[in-house]
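Q: Sequence in, structure out?
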Amino acid sequence: MDTALDMTVDYIVSPVLVSAYDIRHHAVDLNRFRVPLIIVDSGGYEKLVDEEGQRRGGNPDYAAFDWSPELYTETLGGIEIDVPVIAVSYDRTSLPIERQIEAALDARPPGFGSAFLLKPMDKEPLTIESVAKHVPRLDSFDIIGITEKEAGSSLIERLMFIARLRTLLDEHGVDKPVHVFGALDPFMTPLYFLAGADIVDGLTWLRFEFSDDGARYLQSRAAFADPTATIKDAEWQIRRANYVRAVDMQIAFRRYLRSGRYADLSKSTDLVEAITKIHGTLRSVSHPTR
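A: Exactly. Output:
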């Protein structure tokens, strides 16, 4: 059976994010990629997904495998590839931010770049105040990350967190990109970019069809697009088109940086109007850098 990797590896030429959990337990071979950069995530999300699958009936495809900081370090140690690799810090939610930073610095693998993923302690809300006092130490990492869901409970709260984080980094001379994990979406990504994010990732391009103004349920769109094709073939046609749209978003952001015009962010006038309105609200309560 063809995997997602089988169906995408030949046409993706942009940096990719791959879970170390999948490298170890689902036989993802990084040497198959022909990309300029690979970000290796610590596997916390995939561990939770597999545990949830196990709770829902024990399907062997979703059996939870062992996972720990030690197994993550061991998996990173087995990576041999010429492409630059950035390793994301392991989720240590039992520790306060200061000790999370210390643990991430101690665990950095030699020869790899490093990304520090800000995590709340024991499911408490992550506040910008808890991060602020430790910002200078973040300069030791190559990327500073935050998950979309943990940046706030509303859209404006999340955008404000990203804007304030970017401002704090700039004020302390920490010239490092901000990565919002799970934020890839035709509507949300431009907003996070305007708030100060530099990198996003997500699975929406595999699960939905991207359009000029949002995302639609993939399977129904696949059947609508070509009712004579197998659903699987139609879905992969849409996913390839989604990848092109994601690349187009990057180009649109570069146009915006040159022109400063919201209209350069999307072909959809409705989306541009919504982005303009929300960015205006963000500017009234915060001071985004873009």
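Residues 231-259 form the longest helix (29 residues).
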